[in-house]
Amino acid sequence: MLKTRRSVFSFLVILSALLWSSSVAQGQKKLVLGMVSISGGIDILHVTKKIGAFRRNGLDVDMVIFQSSTQALQALFSGDVKVISGGGGAAAQKARMKGAGNVLVSTYTPTLPYGFFVSSKIKTPRDLKGGKVAVSSFGSSPDFAVRFILTQLGLDPNRDVTILQAGNEQTRVNALLSGAVDATVIGIPNTLLARRQGFTQLADASALGLKYPHNNITMTDAFIRDDPETGLAFLRAFVEGIAYYKSHKAESLPMIKEFLRLKEDALAEEAHSYFSRLAPAKPYPSIDGVRTVLAEVAKTDPEARSASPERFVEPKFIRQLDESGFIDRLYQKN
Q1: Looking at residue 26, what is its pLDDT?
Q2: What angle is formed at CA 234 by the lines to CA 13 and CA 37, rounded to 5 degrees?
Q3: Do domains 2-111+212-330 and 115-204 have the same CATH topology?
Q4: Contact, 84 vs 33, CB < 8 A?
Q5: Which comes out higher in pLDDT, residue 27 or 108?
Q6: What is the pTM of this model?
Q7: What is the distance between the alpha carbons of residues 153 and 125, in angstroms, rounded to a whole number?
Q8: 52-93 confidence digits (pLDDT tens)
Q9: How far apart are CA 242 and CA 48, in angstroms?
Q10: Mean pLDDT over all residues of the chain?
Q11: Domains of the chain by residue range
Q12: What CATH topology corresponds to 115-204?
């Protein structure tokens, strides 16, 4: 059955490539994809490239890692890159509010991928009252996730606990190990290592229903207007990559391990299990996620209260791939 499914997938990919071959016949179009980190979820883009999906759609894609989301946005605004993976957070949406051209065309991790881990002495959320919770820095994604999770667990993040800035994930884990803090959030796939060290996972942001545009594909209005064929080709390849990632676990695991620089197969499996579940087959840009970000921005910028989330997304490429039946055909099986 699995062999038949893979054969069907391969046939559909080859057929779509033949139908899309005019751009290939003219040569591959160079495209730089900017990324802000090497982290879970983004490995889907690496898989997309490794299976040749970009090339089948006429694109020669180079992936470039930027040091920060701000740097990636600046490169996008300058035109040095046409596409970035990112652009969903507060800084990007503030820029859009001020008239910048960045716009989300796809969201492929529509939540914050963090597990909320506590020391062994914490058995229930109530045990955290008066405790200390570590985040990387105030205003960061881990900080947002912690405050959301605490609220969902029935705790007031401003009164019931003390939230401390503790730096990167390893530093936070060390603080948890030493007993300096009682809880922190840990990203996928390091959640596996946290469980091995005896920490208890009290909650998961995605399971609690957090809508957040964590991993996205962002383009500019000008690029979409001036070169829609390339924008569509990129996303056509990407939805193919998502389908492959979801349906070809064994083949994807070595690519995940390579991209995330993991030493253990089990960590690659942890990443695949989580992100294959979260990644939508039809990765429309998340309006609900943008709404979450705007609500947070509105706490310090009143303009965000009246901003329409629809202004921050452009779903036309995914809609075209959806309504044409292309995405559904990727998941057909006999």
Answers
A1: 58
A2: 115
A3: yes
A4: yes
A5: 108
A6: 0.88
A7: 6
A8: 999 999 999 999 999 888 999 999 999 999 999 999 999 999
A9: 7
A10: 91
A11: 2-111+212-330, 115-204
A12: D-Maltodextrin-Binding Protein; domain 2 (3.40.190)
